């Protein structure tokens, strides 16, 4: 059974002075804490055991917000990242939690939404080896970039290249088999002094165990690491929610729709928030019967 890793560490220096007093992943993206969005992505994949990696300072705040996950029918554990030393470090920190299980690693400031996203996630969950995603962007220099050969197979992956070989960026969501921790331990610090996730992925590429799934135009990927990106994401989420009257990345709704909690449990959660429009929305879900096509949270 695949387990989830949600990386919510770091110091959020690109967002100073906002993040001098509050963790980036606890900032609001419209009507929900940022961390709800990657959490729901893991839940939609079918993952029910999740490790949140955060700083010691932020640990009490995350525990207060997310608790142990049982209210949503999942299990959440925590571990501390004393110093951010690259994304691959998350796999090393998560090794005791994974205990030999395959994993899905998602960054706490990455938001995914779109048509057939849940189907795409669950397909990746069933793949062997490692699975990454490709997303066409206008500014690939800011990301890990995937280069394809003439047969549309991965030729190379380069972290933040000055001269990108394609416009396909690698979003912060990665599926790995049970070799990931072993591969992460082989990685040496880069010129930036970090354990790069690209160096883990390249080991899968070299052994022909790497799959790439291209996210099409119907899928939105938002990396909310800067003030402008947070503002854009908030406007995007607000526009869709107001237009449709449906919420995006609402963990109570995901849990209820996936059968992780029942109507009675949803009612209890809704009543705890009943003075807000969020709580009222949860109550409205009880008598709704959505077709399968609408299950894109």
From TrEMBL:
Ranges where the Nucleotidyl transferase domain occurs: 3-238
Which reaction is the catalytic activity of this chain?
dTTP + alpha-D-glucose 1-phosphate + H(+) = dTDP-alpha-D-glucose + diphosphate
| Cofactor(s) demanded | Mg(2+)
- Pathway in which the depicted protein is active: Bacterial outer membrane biogenesis; LPS O-antigen biosynthesis; Carbohydrate biosynthesis; dTDP-L-rhamnose biosynthesis
Q: Recite the UniProt keywords alphabetically.
A: Magnesium, Metal-binding, Nucleotidyltransferase, Transferase
Enzyme class label: transferase
Q: Which SUPFAM superfamilies match?
A: Nucleotide-diphospho-sugar transferases
> What top-level branch of life does the organism fall under?
Bacteria
Give the enzyme's EC designation. Answer: 2.7.7.24
Q: Which Pfam families match?
A: NTP_transferase (PF00483)
Explain the purpose of this protein: Catalyzes the formation of dTDP-glucose, from dTTP and glucose 1-phosphate, as well as its pyrophosphorolysis.
Q: Which family does it belong to?
A: Belongs to the glucose-1-phosphate thymidylyltransferase family.
Q: Which NCBIfam families match?
A: rmlA (TIGR01207)
Task: State what protein this is by name.
Answer: Glucose-1-phosphate thymidylyltransferase
């Amino acid at each position: 059974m695949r387990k989830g890793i949600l990386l919510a560490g770091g110091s959020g220096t690109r967002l100073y002075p906002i993040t001098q007093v509050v963790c980036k992943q606890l900032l609001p993206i419209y009507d929900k804490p940022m961390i709800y969005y990657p959490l729901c992505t893991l839940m939609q994949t079918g993952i029910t055991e999740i490790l949140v990696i955060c700083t010691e300072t932020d640990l009490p705040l995350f525990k207060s917000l997310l608790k142990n996950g049982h209210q949503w029918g999942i299990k959440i554990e925590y571990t501390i990242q004393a110093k951010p030393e690259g994304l691959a470090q998350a796999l090393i920190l998560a090794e005791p939690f994974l205990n030999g299980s395959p994993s899905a690693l998602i960054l706490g400031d990455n938001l995914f939404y779109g048509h057939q996203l849940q189907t795409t996630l669950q397909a990746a969950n069933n793949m062997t080896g490692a699975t990454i995603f490709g997303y066409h962007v206008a500014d690939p220099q800011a990301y890990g970039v995937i280069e394809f050969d003439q047969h549309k197979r991965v030729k190379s992956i380069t972290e933040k290249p000055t001269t990108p070989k394609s416009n396909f960026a690698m979003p912060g969501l990665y599926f790995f088999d049970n070799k990931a921790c072993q591969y992460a331990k082989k990685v040496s610090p880069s010129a930036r002094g970090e354990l790069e996730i690209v160096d883990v992925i390249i080991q899968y590429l070299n052994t022909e165990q790497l799959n790439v799934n291209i996210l099409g135009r119907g899928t939105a990927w938002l990396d909310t690491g800067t003030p402008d990106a947070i503002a854009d994401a908030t406007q995007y989420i607000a526009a869709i929610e107001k237009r449709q009257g449906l919420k995006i990345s609402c963990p109570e709704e995901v849990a209820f729709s996936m059968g992780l909690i029942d109507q009675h449990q949803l009612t209890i959660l809704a009543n705890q928030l009943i003075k807000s429009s969020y709580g009222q929305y949860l109550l409205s879900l009880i008598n709704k019967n959505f077709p399968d096509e609408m299950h894109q949270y």
